[in-house]
Each structure stands twice: as structure tokens, then as C-alpha cells.
């Protein structure tokens, strides 16, 4: 580590949180300096590991005195480089992993109060122990933290019924850029007493302040969950099937994941134990799940009626309902192994985008055609949360083409094709991964001047010294 911070900064930090929690040795700091995708590697004058909100506040005040920028970091599982320092060595990483306490579980209020460094899987487990459900579910739930989930407004597989992380949060505790602690840990569903500060900090990726704790909503545990796979001829049919499923099952429909045929072929290629689920190929596969408060029998009866109607209407070409928990887990494993199979296949051009649900079929058709014209043979890995309009729309190099030079030659052009199409359909270039440093230029390019100016005004008002995660979200 090549520190450019004054030694007095490190001494003050050591006095505030103890020498064992001010990391400067390169061996100790290395895990904090590279993002999960290994796209970015930065440098830092120190990695600071406080254990309380008060210690975070003290470190922020010290950073202000020494004009040291802070990069908040949770589980370091982000996908847009939002928690990675720059290469200057002048910034400090502020790890929140030691803020890992569950402060309160209130079953009657259906809330859980947790610190920012609590791992998502632990929140789920503590909710389950109280007979409740915390519905946020992500592939990285064994290592991502609630602070990171809030900072990027993470989505996951349950958004259709439960909403993004923002919808699951009732209150926050935040350390401001001035080193003050705002206690907004109110477990209220209704609080109409002024500006909604909570929502400003959620999704801000640590650029307006540092989230140190949150009050999160809990829900009743479902009596049963039933999972099915349905094969469809097109994305348009998938949209019609989604509408039909919502009419038949209402709020019981908690998952509706779209996967192209190539996605599952790729999984089967690299994980042969995960077989293609149907005897014949189908253009699109939908994974859907019902969470029923009554019984498994009730959920299965709903599924049977839904599938009968969908088959009769020609929306669904084939279907299979999981007979047990193991088979249900197998269906979800197919979905969750798509990114892993992509990685095995080689580097690819990733896009985490959102368009209005009604436009998804048109977006896929038009954008696929534009990419095929620009790069004949390019393979599309299209999957995502159809129920909320979020697609992971990724471009794999043509068969047999070296992926690294393919990315070097086509990444910029592919991004422009995809993001221009997203913009035409009034969508977003980032749905659930955040902006970070990866999409900072694209986000600004597609926003209006008015919107960018308002965001910069907020940033300057909250963080006039620009020490809160600079170079992320906004330039």
C-alpha cells in the first residue's frame, strides 16, 4: 500500500478505534481493494474497521480534519465498483463488517433492527427464528450485507411481491458527512413529518452519508412454497403468461424469472449435472413460485388451474411443477448458475437494465436484432426478474472467438446499442446493481440536465467537501 495520507491521520484513527482495526499492511488490506468481479483494483492509505456508529462518526470527523475521502464497504460483493477506492492511495476504505449486531426483533411490529454489517443470510435466519420472513433474496446473500443492500437498493427474486430493499426499509441510522449521527430508526409505516431523508440515503451508494443501521420490514412465514418451470415460445408469451398468473394467483405469486434457452444450454454445458429441464428446446423458460399462507395443497391446486389455462391458450408449451423441496431447489439452482456458467464460458459484456414490463418483449426483439447485425454470431444470455422489468442482458462472444479481444473491440459499441435501446423504451441503465464507477458516464448521459443538476445540488449540500465516496454515482 502506497499511503499518501499524513501520519497524523492514521494516528488519530488508531486513537479512535484501536491499532488492530486500522489496517495498513498490504496483506491485510488486499481483500478490500479489488471488487467482486475483479474489474477494479484501487489503493488506499488504510482500511478502517469501526464497530459502532459513534466510532464511524469519529472517523468521519477525523477524515474531515485531514481531507481524506472515505469509501464505505460492506461485504464487497458489489457489481459496479461502488465500494472500491481509486488508485491514488489518498482514500481510506471504511469497512462496516464489525457493525454486525442484530439490535432488535419485534414480531408484533413485524420489524428487525440490524446494523449495516449484518450479512443478509443472518437477517433471514433471525427473522425465521422469530416465525417471520425477511424476503430479500440474492445470490450473494451469504456474504453481502444489509448496508450494501440498502446503498444499492438491491432487488433480487422477490421484488414482484415484496419490492426492492427500499420498500423493505422503515428507518435508518446514518452518519452524516459532518460526522453526526442521525437516528432515524423508527419502525413506522406512517410518518408524514417532513422530507423523506431515509429514501435519499437508500440507493446513494454512500455518497451522501454512511448507513450504520436500519429497521427492516418482516412478513409472515408462508405455509408453503411451490415452484414450477414453464416453457414458452417467446418473451411476448411470457408477458401474457405473467398477466395470467397474476390474475389466477394474485399476491401469492412471489417469483417470476425469465431465462432464455441459451442460458440453460450454457448451464448444462458447464454443469452437466444440471440437465435441461424439458425434452425439447424452447425459446424461453419461466421459473415461477407461489408462497401460500394456507397450504401446499391450495398452492398446487392454483398452479394446476393456471397451467391448464396457459396450455389451452397456447401461452405455455410445456410445464413441470416441483414435487418436493429438493426439486424446487434444483429449479432455482438452474437460475442461479447462469452467471457462473457465463463466467466459465468466458468474459462477456454485462448489462443490468430495466424497462417497463410491457416493453420487455419488444426490447429483446429489437435489441437482439441490432446486436446480431453489429456482431453476427454474438450469443445473447438474457435472464432476469420479468415481474419487475429487470433483465440481465448479456452479450457473449461468438462461438470459438477469443473473449478478451472481443470485449476490447466491441464493449463500447455493445453498450451503446443496449443503452440506446433501453432509453428508447424509457428504461434504466442500472436496475439493481447500482451505478458505482462502472456506469457513472452512462447514467449521466441518459438523464436530463435538470435531473443531473438536482442530484449535484443534493451532493454539494450534504457533502460539500466531497469526501463521501467521491467518483461514484456522480462526477
Descriptive overview:
- The protein has 475 residues and is α+β, with helices and mostly antiparallel strands.
- Among the domains are: 7-95, Uridine Diphospho-n-acetylenolpyruvylglucosamine Reductase, domain 2 (2-Layer Sandwich), CATH 3.30.43.10; 102-220, Uridine Diphospho-n-acetylenolpyruvylglucosamine Reductase, domain 3, CATH 3.30.465.10; 224-339, Alpha-Beta Plaits.
- The chain is built from 16 helices and 19 strands.
- The chain has helices at 7-17, 26-29, 53-66, 120-129, 146-152, 159-162, 197-201, 235-249, 261-270, 296-312, 325-336, 338-345, 360-374, 403-424, 440-446, 449-462; strands at 22-23, 46-48, 70-73, 92-95, 102-106, 111-115, 132-133, 169-175, 181-184, 210-217, 219-220, 224-232, 253-260, 284-292, 318-321, 348-349, 352-354, 379-385, 390-396.
- Strands 12, 13, 14, 15, 16, 17, 18 and 19 form an eight-stranded antiparallel β-sheet that branches.
- A hairpin with a 4-residue loop joins β18 and β19.
- α1 packs antiparallel against α3 (53-66), α8 (235-249) crosses α10 and α13 crosses α14 (403-424).
- The longest helix is centred in the C-terminal third of the chain and has 22 residues, at 403-424.
- The chain is globular.
- This is FAD linked oxidase domain protein.
- InterPro entries: FAD-bd_oxidored_4_C (IPR004113), FAD-bd_PCMH (IPR016166), FAD-bd_PCMH-like_sf (IPR036318), FAD-bd_PCMH_sub1 (IPR016167), FAD-bd_PCMH_sub2 (IPR016169), FAD-linked_Oxase-like_C (IPR016164), FAD-oxidored/transferase_4 (IPR051264), Oxid_FAD_bind_N (IPR006094).
